[in-house]
User: Fold this.
Amino acid sequence: SFTTPKLDANNTQVSTTLAKPIQIIYLHGLMAERSTFSALWKLTKAAYEAKSTPLTPPLCSFHVDMRNHGKSPHKSPHSYTALLSDLFYFIHSSCDLSSPIVLVGHSMGARVAMLASILFP
Assistant:
């Protein structure tokens, strides 16, 4: 048995329209941390802002330090079951569940994102 730690994350929002945001959660790979996707987020944000209209839903990004990485708690176990549990705890505690959530991952983060998509579409 294991406990789910509170993951450390940065949160950035692009727009302040009344529409519900599209939430992007970036999940880094093994031996990395939440800043891994900073450059990709800057490009995504710039492209999105260039094409947006007053009716375009806002973007909201979360750059998450996964268990045993960066500023998130370092604790056992380090398994995909634990990482998936941490992700669902994070989503339920930090995201608007009535808005779309997009998972973007690399390496270990991509595997967690795929597991989440398969188990909880």
Notes: The chain has a mean pLDDT of 88. The two ends are 25 Å apart (CA to CA).
